[in-house]
Amino acid sequence: KLAILQLGNNSLSGAIPPSLGTCRNLIWLDLTLNQLTGPIPASLASQTGLISPGAVSGKHFAFLRNEGGTSCADSGVLVEFAGIRPERLASFPLVHACPTTRIYTGTALYTFSGNGSIVYLDLSYNSLTGTIPDNMGAMGYLQVFNLGHNQLTGPIPDTFGGLKSVGVLDLSHNHLSGTIPAALGSLSFLVDLDVSNNNLTGAIPFLGQLTTFPPSCYENNSGLCGMPLPPCGASGPGTPDATTRPGSGDRGSGFLGGSIVVGIAISVLIVLAC
To answer: Is the pTM of this model over 0.70?
Structure first.
């Protein structure tokens, strides 16, 4: 029974087969660094599995998250799906070759029948297009979710608040638009978020851990603002602030002066009438 499918760093082309969603025991899918095109099959999120205890679930794994350039792109992959000792990680060559890489460790929990028993899904560094399927937010067991470096468009689905186990979420280097869903602030296990290099706009939700990530996780989105980026509505050169808008400083005195004139005119009319 197929539980782990690693086909990363090859020259695979064409579309991702929707039939992968029928692999009932698949919990690990790595297709990074290929030449895949077309949309992400929604069926991947509908995949349901029942993993026998002791077969794959309950094992430890490590994921090396590349924060450097393309020369270290292949470091965003699985290190080992077994018992991992600290000395094993220290001896891993990519840790030294790519010093900007962070390590995320986790455990594949027992999975039961239900939407999306996949715990690791890496489709990064391809040419995937279209929008992110909404039902991917139902993948409650997913711990590493990497869609970075593709050509995806549309918004980040609001349903991503359902990714209750996710620790790594990389949506960087796409063409995503819209705002960052407030639902992402409810992801209590999220330790690594990257939505940089997109077309996102609006304020970063002041919720959960979203404001604790470094600015680099949000950079190159010209419309984003708020912690940890500059505050929303910050005045730029030549852009008048609301409190110093031309004429706004004189509005109160002008209104007061007008009231005095009107008051005097009424008083004069009353005197003449008498």
So the answer is: yes
